[in-house]
Amino acid sequence: MKDANSSPASLADVGQKLLVHSKQAKFTARGVVVELFPFIYGASERMSARDISRFLEKEQGVKLSSVTITRALKDPGKTWNLFFDMIEPAARTYVKGERVTMSVFLFKKNPLFKPFKSKLFNATLRAVFSDEVAVATSILRAKWFTIDLGIRLKARPYFEHRLDK
């Protein structure tokens, strides 16, 4: 609270400070559950929401309540679409220059993890890749292709309507 001697803040000032603070905050439960959802979804086949919550807190230091996990699992379509919102721009950027659709590309085993044999080829590839494609590739490697193919295939029906539009 402000003391009585200071001038009152406008609600717009308070709101702006809240937004700045929210951008500096580490994570929120919503953000964490969306980021971890593919792995939570996969683990939920063998573990309860309570067990997942306990594991995350005890083993990883991530506090995510079993209620939040249950809520995400009860509406997987919503949560998968929120997750897809994070990777869709990168996927569209990557496939724009390729001769493949997103629906094919995103469900291959590991299309971005191909070893290159020639140093000359690597240098040529880097020169051809735009910064935008490099960033897209990095996002897809970190957020999509680290997910087990079986889980990615189970997710497909939830956002298939968005793939090749």
Description:
- The protein has two domains: 27-74; 85-165, no CATH class.
- Helices cover 66% and strands 0% of the residues.
- The chain is built from nine helices and no strands.
- α2 crosses α4 (66-74) and α3 packs across α4.
- The radius of gyration is 21 Å and the shape is globular.
- The mean pLDDT is 82.
Kindly estimate the percentage of residues that lie in beta strands according to DSSP.
under 5%
Q: Ends: how far apart?
A: 50 Å
Please give the radius of gyration in angstroms: 21 Å
List segments where confidence is low: pLDDT < 50 over at least 5 consecutive residues.
none
Q: How many structural domains?
A: 2
Question: What is the number of helices?
Answer: 9
Q: Largest sheet, if any?
A: none
As a percent range, the share of helical residues equals: 55-70%
Strand element count = 0
- Determine the mean pLDDT: 82
Q: Label the overall shape.
A: globular
Topology (SSEs and partners):
Blueprint: H1 11-24, H2 29-43, H3 49-60, H4 66-74, H5 76-96, H6 102-105, H7 119-128, H8 131-143, H9 149-159
Quick take:
The chain is an all-alpha fold. It has helices at residues 11-24, 29-43, 49-60, 66-74, 76-96, 102-105, 119-128, 131-143, 149-159.
Descriptive labels:
single chain; 165 residues; 66% helix
